[in-house]
Write a structure and sequence with these properties.
18% of the residues lie in helices and 34% in strands. It is α+β, with helices and mostly antiparallel strands and 131 residues long. The protein has a domain of 91 residues: Thrombin, subunit H (Beta Barrel), CATH 2.40.10. It has a 6-stranded antiparallel beta barrel with strand order 1-2-3-6-5-4. Strand 4 and strand 5 form a beta hairpin. The radius of gyration is 15 Å and the shape is globular.
């Protein structure tokens, strides 16, 4: 159901704006009303974005290449996930771009379910319907 983005020419017209990134998965941005709450190495944070391939959050003195314990609480009762996160990049806005490691199949399904529902919300908002 979720796959890596393919590079193909669409005649210059794109349905979604793809930021330059190293992740191979489409990322979604949690709403301010329903954020993804994180606890990274006992530091409370809010996710900047999430994809099937990883998650981003503000840098609070995390180190590039380091792995930290992660507790991720998805909004609307979609569950809490305990795993680890590895910092792959710290960008010029001081945001950690990370991959989540150690997820089991059920946890991956929870993340995919959240991403799909958030994509539907974003599409509905663009169409002016709101969910």
């Amino acid at each position: 159901m979720f796959w890596k983005k393919k590079s193909k020419d669409t005649g210059g017209k794109k349905l979604f704006k793809n930021p330059s990134e190293t992740r191979g998965s489409f990322r979604v941005y949690p709403s301010k009303e329903n954020p993804i709450i994180l606890k990274v190495s006992s530091i409370d944070l809010v996710a900047v974005d999430i994809s099937a391939g990883g998650i981003s959050f503000d840098n609070k003195k995390f180190k590039l290449g380091a792995t930290y314990p992660l507790e991720m609480t998805l909004p609307r009762g979609k569950g809490t996930i305990t795993a680890k996160t590895e910092v792959l990049k710290i960008d010029d806005k001081d945001v950690c771009r990370c991959k989540v490691v150690g997820l089991n199949e059920d946890q991956e399904d929870q993340v995919h379910s959240y991403i799909l529902s958030r994509q539907k919300e974003e599409i509905a908002q663009r169409k002016g319907r709101g969910l």
